[in-house]
Amino acid sequence: MSTEVKVPVLGESITEATLGEWLKQPGDAVAADEPIASLETDKVAVEVPAPVAGVMGAHAVQPGDTVSVGAMIATIEEGGGAAAPAPAAAPAPAETAKPEAAAQQAPVQPDAGSSNEPAALSPSVRRAILEHGVDPATIKGSGRDGRITKDDVVAAASAKSSAPASAPIATPAAAPATGGDRPEERVRMTRLRQTIARRLKEAQDTAALLTTFNDVDMTAVIEARTKYKDLFEKKHGVRLGFMGFFVKAATMALKDIPAVNAQIDGDEIVYHDYADISVAVSAPQGLVVPVIRNADKLSVAEVEKTIGDFGKRAKDGTLKMDEMKGGTFTISNGGVFGSLMSTPIINPPQSAVLGLHRIEDRAVVRDGQIVIRPMMYLALSYDHRLIDGREAVTFLVALKNAIEDPTRLLIDL
Length: 413
Description:
Elements lengths: L1 E5 L9 E7 L6 E2 L4 E6 L4 E5 L4 E6 L6 E3 L3 E7 L6 H5 L8 H8 L2 H7 L8 H10 L17 H12 L4 H12 L13 H16 L2 E9 L1 H18 L6 H14 L6 E3 L2 E3 L6 E3 L1 E3 L2 E3 L2 E2 L7 H17 L12 E5 L18 E5 L3 E7 L2 E15 L5 H16 L2 H5 L2
Parallel strand pairs: 12-16, 16-17
Antiparallel strand pairs: 1-8, 2-4, 2-7, 3-6, 4-5, 6-8, 9-19, 10-11, 12-15, 13-14, 17-19, 18-19
Helix pairs in contact: 4-5, 9-10, 9-11
């Protein structure tokens, strides 16, 4: 008896997805609720669990195909996962000796090992492999049926760091040595990347984008962080970073300049009496923007915990679609990658985005004296149809004042 595997409900307003990869091949044993395929939606990757235990049947669709919610994508032949190795051993019926029977079991393990190829890895493991730059064929899996886990990848990366780097260097060096060869590779854009491209272009085509800059002296925040980071981590179980300060400062500035927290809906302007802050997080498949709900009512510790959780789950590919919906204002921190200055693009239907950049020592004038201070450039990109230059500058100045004097965050000034 076979059971159909159907595309699960993916979230509100999401009706289709792209099949990213098959984690199980026809003939593989599967357990109930074990991931057998990965789907790519507009926002996140979703694993499809096996509805029953049994043996993987035929694939109805191929990687890259678009599938609708409720569509049948494969079948599973019921009969228990343990039944799968028996048919695999059937080609040698004349062999009756027990040692030979044991030998027939051995190929089953390499088959499981062959699932370590990229097409059979879970999305989180594939991301870890890309992050650490390791060859999955060299990794011995410690998971179920010999599958590779994230811990296996990390361990392999640690071992690789102590090995000579000549092997990876030799591969690119071989290409120029061939003389006329100039290899190219065409890779289909993921649904997430297609969505990012489409939305960014829509923002440029629809909004009247303008960017205003300012800079901020980070001395006071750095001193506060240095002084309290150990106590903060001991009490709250999370590191004290800079984003907590900027999120709180932004929520205060948004209250003073509500247009920056508003959006255009047809011929109307929608003002929000709350601050849902979208935080741009880098994931292996592209940029994702989870939302800190009611950030204006959270403490710095709660903000840091939320951001830390978002960052971890973005790398693991376990963010939920509901966590990336909405948002009234976005903060993007390009400084973690070394960016000195940029003009970020708004995240529609929002009307503004704050870009943070790297901190570097620069010569500035204080009280008539030239001194060295840790400075950061701030960039506010906004929809000029809704936000005037005066409001944009006032917002940045309010943010700057709060960061340069963090006491303002305590007394709401």
